[in-house]
Amino acid sequence: MNRRTYIELVLELFAFIALCLAMMASGKAVVIFSLITIALVIWIPFQANAGNRLTRALSFALPIAAIARTVVHFLPNPSL
After folding, report:
1. Residue 63 burial (10 A CB sphere; 0-12, 13-18, 19+)
2. Keyword annotations for this protein (predicted)?
3. 49: alpha, beta or left? (left if phi > 0; alpha if psi -120 to 50)
4. Element (H, E) at 5
5. Which residues of the chain have pLDDT under 50?
6. Using CA atoms, how far apart are residues 26 and 40, in angstroms rounded to an integer?
7. Are the C-beta atoms of residues 19 and 37 closer than 8 Å to each other?
């Protein structure tokens, strides 16, 4: 593993922490933490000579999960 791979893995870790915070938050914080998650990792798969398979998989999965969390946040919550 080279230096760039370590940096990408650290960014993935911070993005995962931001996603966890988005899962636990409510209100505007959901959107903020989701945007932080997306901003940290969205650029990784689009660069030349992208990192290893784990990094690419995480950089696709984390933004998808963040978008899904934001969508679920804005869905109406019907009471029974």
Report:
1. buried
2. Membrane, Transmembrane, Transmembrane helix
3. left
4. helix 3-24
5. 80
6. 21
7. yes
Q: Which of 50, 60, 61 is nearest to 8 (CA)?
A: 50
- The structure tokens listed for 29 are 């914080």
Residue of 64, 62, 73 whose CA lies nearest to 29: 73
Tokens of 14: 């911070």
Convert the pLDDT of each residue in 56-77 to its tens digit.
888 889 999 999 999 988 888 7
- What predicted TM-score, i.e. pTM, was given to this entire model? 0.79
φ, ψ dihedrals at 51, nearest 5°: -65, -165
- The residues, ordered by sequence, that sit 6+ positions from 23 with a Cβ below 8 Å of its Cβ are 69
